[in-house]
UniProtKB/TrEMBL annotation:
InterPro entries: Asn_synth_AEB, Asn_synthase, ASN_synthetase/amidase, GATase_2_dom. Pathway: Amino-acid biosynthesis; L-asparagine biosynthesis; L-asparagine from L-aspartate (L-Gln route): step 1/1. Pfam families: Asn_synthase (PF00733), GATase_7 (PF13537). Its EC number is 6.3.5.4. GO terms for molecular function: asparagine synthase (glutamine-hydrolyzing) activity. This is asparagine synthase (glutamine-hydrolyzing). It catalyses: L-aspartate + L-glutamine + ATP + H2O = L-asparagine + L-glutamate + AMP + diphosphate + H(+). It comes from Faecalicatena faecalis. The keyword Ligase applies. The gene is asnB. Residues 1-147 form the Glutamine amidotransferase type-2 domain. Keywords: Amino-acid biosynthesis, Asparagine biosynthesis, ATP-binding, Ligase, Nucleotide-binding. Belongs to the asparagine synthetase family.
């Protein structure tokens, strides 16, 4: 007998799986997905993940073999954690707090992670800020039997460039595949909104979906307010739009809520905006589309245009989308610094996997395996869950990635444009000025707000606190803060990353 111990997610290709596995497709979603997990395990065993599309993390108990089987989806859109106790028990699940509540869990800070966090701004790799608590990484499964832990990889990104197709061929394949995926993303009786920024990814998803309402975040400061571009897109597509205007007071007020619900610190300033956006959206819907994945798959970041120039040097420094503090600076500000704990080590095995491939592919693969899991998908899952909102990401799909894995880099990035083939596909349903609009990123006016004494009092207090003195040379971090307030706005990310760690630490080690 197979029993489901833990499950989080949405299985997209449920109709095909119900036919293949002889499951009643009229069952409720909960019963249907439970039946799929059990039957898929009985049919395909450890390879079951390769037969499923969607977002999922789960744990199954095999009563006959007295064996626990846990699996996380290919890209890590859903989190999964595990912890071995001193008594030889295994705690596991999608929530760190639930694991922490179990007798036998010893709450201890894993201070090594702070050194990595100060560079990356997120928790990368399998370790966490709680000593002994680990992540099951994407595309892996875990087996626990007879008190023995085994972890294997069932899927990894592979790249095999196909030079035989034209730009139009690739655009057509993206378009037809996304049409297929969107038919699976929800059932006919479900209604979904769609998050919308000024960028092509969310605009393309909205245009291809049946969402009647778009949801966007904006600010009173016009130069940062991307929601006006979103409104113009919604108008062109004939959709209604709900706009959440975020004030600095709301933004800073939400930081403890965000760090608590993240369960791990996250120094991505857009995460606060996303959290507030999720709460606003959850007031009128419980299901929403979002456009994550395309940038990493199809060459969306402006820095990717430097890939050829970086060449073989990539493996000496490129650890993903963010790398804000170098080792010399961390030596100065940290009370404990270990020269053997280096961010680049997290990417070493990925560079081995991509040996012989072009530089853009190497950069993309690092971001797919490290940045997406550690920052983007982590943020989406934790903040939507906290708000009671379910988010589905049509562009994050192994079938969409399969196209990107075969596409030569020249169709991803050129001297003038990024995401070339993807934008060409989007232009089939969007005006060219939207499909080929320059990438803006998720703009947050935090770099200005945090220098304002009306909003930065908690930052100042934390930087001078006894809590800060445990980890930092406070005179050094305050020198960075004073330099920032004095006009060096380039320091804002460093300030924010230190601050978010301190807020998170207070939530988990001081208050509780």
């Amino acid at each position: 007998m197979i029993k489901i111990q833990e499950y989080s997610g949405h299985i997209r290709n449920w109709e095909a799986l119900c036919k293949e596995l002889s499951i009643d497709s009229t069952l409720s979603r909960e019963d249907r997905e439970a039946a799929i997990l059990v039957k898929a395990y009985e049919t395909w065993g450890y390879e079951m993940g390769n037969h499923m599309h969607g977002m999922f993390a789960f744990a199954l108990w095999d009563e006959e073999e007295k064996k626990l089987f846990c699996l996380r989806d290919q890209f890590g859109t859903k989190p999964f954690y595990y912890y071995e106790t001193a008594e030889g028990k295994l705690f596991y699940g999608t929530s760190i707090r639930k694991i922490m509540e179990q007798p036998g869990f010893v709450k201890e800070l894993n201070e090594e992670m702070l050194q990595l966090y100060l560079s990356l701004t997120y928790v990368a790799g399998e370790n966490t800020f709680f000593r002994g608590l680990k992540k099951l990484m994407p595309g892996r499964y875990l087996i626990w039997q007879n008190r023995k832990l085994t972890i294997e990889r069932y899927w990894s990104p592979e790249f095999h460039p196909d030079e035989s197709k034209s730009l139009e061929d690739w655009a057509d394949e993206i378009h037809t595949t996304l049409q297929k995926v969107l038919k699976e993303v929800k059932t006919e009786d479900e209604e979904a909104d769609s998050f919308l920024s000024g960028g092509v990814d969310s605009s393309y998803v909205l245009a291809m979906s049946d969402a009647k309402m778009a949801d966007s975040c904006g600010y009173e400061e016009e130069r940062f307010d991307e929601s006006k571009l979103a409104q113009a897109t919604a108008d062109i597509l004939g959709r209604k739009m709900s706009r959440c205007v975020i004030t600095p007071e709301e933004y800073f007020g939400a930081v403890p809520y965000v760090m608590y619900n993240m369960e791990q610190p996250l120094g991505d300033a857009s995460a606060i905006v996303f959290a507030l956006g999720c709460r606003a959206t959850a007031q009128h819907t419980k299901l929403c589309y979002s456009g994550e994945g395309a940038d990493e798959f199809f060459g969306g970041y402006n820095m990717y245009r430097n890939a050829e120039r970086y060449g073989e040097n990539l493996k000496t420094f490129y650890v993903g989308n963010t790398n804000i503090m170098k080792e010399d600076e961390k030596k100065k500000i940290l009370k404990k610094y270990d020269p053997d704990v280096l961010p680049i080590e997290l990417a070493a095995s990925i560079y081995e996997e991509t040996e012989g491939l072009d530089p853009l592919t190497k950069m993309s693969d690092v971001d797919i395996q490290i940045w997406l899991e550690g920052d983007i998908y982590f943020n989406v899952d934790k903040m939507s869950t906290a708000a009671g909102l379910e988010i589905r990401m049509p562009l994050t799909d192994t079938r969409i990635f399969d196209i990107a894995s075969r596409m030569p880099s020249k169709y991803k990035v050129n001297e003038e444009q990024n995401k070339v083939a993807f934008r060409t596909a989007a232009a089939k349903v969007l005006p060219e000025e939207i499909a080929f609009r320059k990438k803006l990123g998720f703009i947050v006016p935090i770099r200005i707000w945090m220098a304002d004494d009306r909003y930065n009092q908690d930052v100042r207090e934390k930087f001078h606190s006894e809590m800060a003195e445990k980890f930092f040379n406070v005179e050094e971090i305050n020198a960075i803060f004073d330099d920032y307030v004095g006009g060096n706005s380039d320091n804002w990310r460093k300030i924010w990353t230190i601050y978010t760690f301190l807020v998170w630490y207070e939530e988990y080690f001081v208050k509780r």
